[in-house]
Amino acid sequence: MENPLSLEPLFHIGPVAISAPVVVTWGIMAGLGLFAFLATRRLKMLPGKTQTILELFVSVIDDQIRDTMQRDPGPFRSLIGTIFGFVLIANWCALIPGIEPPTAHLETDAALAVMVLVATIYYGIKGRGLKGYLATFAEPSWVMIPLNIVEQITRTFSLVVRLFGNVMSGVFVVGIVLSLAGLFVPIPLMALDLLTGAVQAYIFAVLATVFIGAAVGDDLPEPSQQTEASKP
Amino acid sequence: MSFDWWTFGLQTVNAVVLVWLLARFLFRPVAGIIAERQAAAHAALDQAQADRAAAAEALAETQKAKDALAADRATLITEARAEADRQKQQILAEARADADKARADAAADLDRQRAAETQHWHAEAATLAVDISARLLDQLPGGARAVDFVPGLIDAVSKLPKATQDRIGTEGPAIVRSAKPLTGDEQALVADQLQATLGRAVPLTFITDDSLIAGLELDTPHAVVRNTFRSDLDRIAGRIAPDD
Question: CA-to-CA distance for A24 and A20, rounded, in angstroms?
Fold first, then answer.
């Protein structure tokens, strides 16, 4: 059995080593992009089944952002929704034989966490201004500046480790059980992986929302906009 | 455990690209159609609100018009009733006047008829009385004597105006009518009495007329002197039915 912590390149494009998580991610991107393109080609005022599911998904994301951040979900919808959808699909890739979830590798989780960190800084500066955003590090006192800086790093690191640990452990356990027992023995563990994958995707997306919402603060217009049409 | 920085970089780029892809092909269109539907729903609600307001306004207008119609109707009914009462009173007055007039006319007609009936029956009664008297006189044995009527006749002639007396017998013989033929003595008595009264002899012609019943009648072109039962009965009948 291969070590799940090891990452061997599948091929190289020039000096760039292409590993399995990257290829799987490309596959997920292609699948999601193609599905989104096909599903949203002919949106109608009276939705069909697929459109209804998509609208439900978007509405749930919007409600989650609105409940957490108490503001218009429009500017954050794509980021939060993409994180949730990608992490969920990536986690559930473990069900396909021969495919290892990209989120079971530290590089993918780190990339997502870094993206959340950058988005937090971006929306924080956009919402409060550079000075205002930096001032948040001195809250409630300038003494807290080092701790707040460390908190930014550690909570990003916690995002990485939480997702990586849960998904990697699931894959690892299933692999061990599969190597020791019969074909159908890992099925309960795989079902547990489904639940774990969904929960981890939800936790990752909610934490990203909380981090961004905390960075944005209360300076943006309040939810009088919540009832208005959200801009994508 | 190792960390592949190439994989990290590629996954970072992949995540960013995926965010763009899904924003472009999933979230933006879906959120757009949701917003469009919400806008349509709001527009429909606003339109429904406006329609409801318009309907309420139209209802109020209709109610107002209905109230106005009811008021007009009440006014018209009141006026019509007043006009009907007026016409009724007028018709009643006219009918009452017509009835009074008809009643007065009927009473007048009745009075006239009653008077006519009275006159008629008075005349009938007079005629009957005269007839009865005449029949009774006819049944007297020997009838009434003509000589008994001569004094009355002469007396009546003597009461005539002098001019009338002078013209008696001047334009032809005077006619002496009697109910029964006069005897020679009776004719002489009449001639003598007239001569004595008028102072001259008067030519006489004696004629018998049963209708006189009894008595004498002197008939000249200028005067008629009657002393007969017929003339008496006619006078009596005239008094009984004075208007006839």
Answer: 6
